[in-house]
């Protein structure tokens, strides 16, 4: 089945772009985005972009359209059904997160809408909460447009990098470049995540708080960031990086 889907997308540009739009739509749709493994799906589609089987900018446009439609459907649902939604038992599971989202929208609506687009748990809740609060369209629209414009390429980026790495000629890799690149990517991601938790320490609690209390993050966060920067700089000196950068340049600018 997976091979058939892969074949369908590689043989039909229209189906591939429809898949990008559908995934970004569902990831943005109220509550559905909390259940959908959208990151995995978009990484797979991003790999097709990185390998040149889908153009970046058509995929970007499809992702922008899916994101925008999903957000505005969620906003409309929140506005139209705010009363029943507040009483809906299923939504009570996310009451704490929804309350925090509503509070943030009250305090800093534009910042919350823009930044929340890039935070997984709040992405499908913010448009819904904005509608439930009857946030004026003039306040919702500008950050929503900016967020939907910037989010798709970032969402596709891990897959793009993987697709470009696959295209590096086997004979030129020396047998270890892909693994070094993967290790560097994981280290950079982990360092960024630790740095983000360090910045957010004391502001919220979740599953990782017991393992990463603020006093531990005070040294682990900066250390993670330093190691991430070192890994990012270090991989640039690998002999295969010029080939990788050239292929990546082609994805974005050719």
UniProtKB/TrEMBL annotation:
<keyword id="KW-1003">Cell membrane</keyword>
<keyword id="KW-0812">Transmembrane</keyword>
<comment type="similarity">
    <text>Belongs to the DedA family.</text>
</comment>
<dbReference type="GO" id="GO:0005886">
    <property type="term" value="C:plasma membrane"/>
</dbReference>
<feature type="transmembrane region" description="Helical">
    <location>
        <begin position="144"/>
        <end position="167"/>
    </location>
</feature>
<feature type="transmembrane region" description="Helical">
    <location>
        <begin position="15"/>
        <end position="42"/>
    </location>
</feature>
<feature type="transmembrane region" description="Helical">
    <location>
        <begin position="219"/>
        <end position="237"/>
    </location>
</feature>
<dbReference type="InterPro" id="IPR032816">
    <property type="entry name" value="VTT_dom"/>
</dbReference>
<feature type="domain" description="VTT">
    <location>
        <begin position="36"/>
        <end position="159"/>
    </location>
</feature>
<dbReference type="Pfam" id="PF09335">
    <property type="entry name" value="VTT_dom"/>
</dbReference>
<feature type="transmembrane region" description="Helical">
    <location>
        <begin position="54"/>
        <end position="75"/>
    </location>
</feature>
<feature type="transmembrane region" description="Helical">
    <location>
        <begin position="179"/>
        <end position="199"/>
    </location>
</feature>
<keyword id="KW-1133">Transmembrane helix</keyword>
<keyword id="KW-0472">Membrane</keyword>
<dbReference type="InterPro" id="IPR032818">
    <property type="entry name" value="DedA-like"/>
</dbReference>
<protein>
    <submittedName>
        <fullName>DedA family protein</fullName>
    </submittedName>
</protein>
């Amino acid at each position: 089945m997976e091979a058939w889907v892969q074949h369908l997308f590689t043989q039909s540009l229209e189906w591939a772009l429809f898949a990008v739009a559908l995934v970004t739509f569902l990831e943005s749709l109220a509550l559905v985005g909390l259940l959908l493994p959208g990151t995995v799906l978009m990484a797979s589609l991003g790999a097709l972009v990185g390998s040149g089987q889908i153009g970046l900018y058509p995929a970007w446009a499809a992702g922008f359209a899916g994101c925008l439609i999903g957000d505005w459907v969620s906003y409309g649902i929140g506005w139209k059904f705010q009363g029943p939604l507040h009483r809906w038992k299923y939504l009570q599971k996310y009451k704490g997160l929804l309350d925090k989202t509503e509070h943030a929208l009250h305090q800093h609506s534009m910042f919350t809408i823009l930044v929340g687009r890039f935070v997984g748990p709040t992405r499908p809740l913010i448009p819904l909460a904005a509608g439930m609060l009857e946030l004026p369209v003039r306040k919702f629209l500008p950050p929503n447009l900016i967020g939907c414009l910037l989010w798709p390429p970032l969402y596709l980026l891990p897959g793009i990098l993987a697709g470009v790495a696959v295209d590096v000629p086997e004979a030129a890799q020396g047998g270890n470049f892909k693994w070094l690149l993967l290790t560097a990517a994981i280290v950079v991601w982990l360092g960024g995540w630790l740095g983000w938790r360090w910045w957010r320490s004391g502001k919220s609690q979740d599953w990782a708080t017991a393992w990463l209390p603020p006093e531990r993050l005070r040294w682990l966060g900066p250390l993670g960031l330093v190691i991430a920067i070192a890994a990012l700089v270090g991989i640039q000196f690998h002999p295969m990086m010029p080939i990788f950068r050239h292929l990546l340049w082609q994805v974005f600018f050719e």
